[in-house]
Amino acid sequence: MCDVLQIARSTFYYDAQERATEDDVTEAIVDIFHKNRKAYGTRKIKVKLHERGLIVSRRRIGRIMKEQGLVSTYTVAQYKPHKTACNEATTANVLKREFEQTEAKRFVVSDLTYVKVQDRWHYICVLVDLFNREIIGHSAGPNKDTALITRAFATVKGDLHQIQWFHTDRGGEFKNQKMDELLETFEIGRSLSMKGCPYDNAVAEATYKIMKTEFVNQMNFQSLRHLELELYDYVNWFNKHRIHGTLDYMTPVQYRQEALKKVV
């Protein structure tokens, strides 16, 4: 056939090899995209491809994603729920936007977000360790109250006395007698954002934006139990499999393990 078409055999073999390589890269990109909840863009896919021994430019990844119709969930516009009235407590902002922490559980931040279960609003609470952005506690329920937060604390592995400071916004569910009693019992310090300043709790806000995009907006929850099971599965993926740009493209668990190796 090469003789008939008057082309060199080397040209044919080169094109065949390039086609095979392109197919391998495309298959890998599609696999990584779907295994990571359709949340990864070109930057994170490039990192995961490198782990598989494939060196591919972000431009090429973007082209292949477009050809395969792979659209990251982050292209979808997000709905921002209204803010509730804040409390007027005199508790200081101890965190002061020092979001880069070098000690595990020195500062744990939290917030709540809205989730639709059939035709009724439910709520999710997560506790995030600023040290490695790991979700160390989580809960879901039909009411936006202190019980939701205490259930999240109940899922934390290890001794709650290890938590030094608990930082949140000024929502009433975070500053009341029951919360004060819980924090006092485990000798956990209290830190509140300044009034009307969401930037003081930016990591918690960013975590919920991620969860809305990668998890909540992709699901159709049929019951509270369904929400709880899916939340547990997502948190497990978030901590053990999702790479984070702020952690040098490691997972929260990997980052914590690497930090322990350095200490030893």
Automatic annotation (TrEMBL):
<dbReference type="InterPro" id="IPR001584">
    <property type="entry name" value="Integrase_cat-core"/>
</dbReference>
<dbReference type="InterPro" id="IPR036397">
    <property type="entry name" value="RNaseH_sf"/>
</dbReference>
<dbReference type="InterPro" id="IPR012337">
    <property type="entry name" value="RNaseH-like_sf"/>
</dbReference>
<dbReference type="GO" id="GO:0003676">
    <property type="term" value="F:nucleic acid binding"/>
</dbReference>
<comment type="function">
    <text>Involved in the transposition of the insertion sequence.</text>
</comment>
<dbReference type="Pfam" id="PF13276">
    <property type="entry name" value="HTH_21"/>
</dbReference>
<dbReference type="Pfam" id="PF00665">
    <property type="entry name" value="rve"/>
</dbReference>
<dbReference type="Pfam" id="PF13333">
    <property type="entry name" value="rve_2"/>
</dbReference>
<feature type="domain" description="Integrase catalytic">
    <location>
        <begin position="99"/>
        <end position="260"/>
    </location>
</feature>
<dbReference type="InterPro" id="IPR050900">
    <property type="entry name" value="Transposase_IS3/IS150/IS904"/>
</dbReference>
<dbReference type="InterPro" id="IPR025948">
    <property type="entry name" value="HTH-like_dom"/>
</dbReference>
<dbReference type="InterPro" id="IPR048020">
    <property type="entry name" value="Transpos_IS3"/>
</dbReference>
<dbReference type="GO" id="GO:0015074">
    <property type="term" value="P:DNA integration"/>
</dbReference>
<protein>
    <submittedName>
        <fullName>Transposase InsO and inactivated derivatives</fullName>
    </submittedName>
</protein>
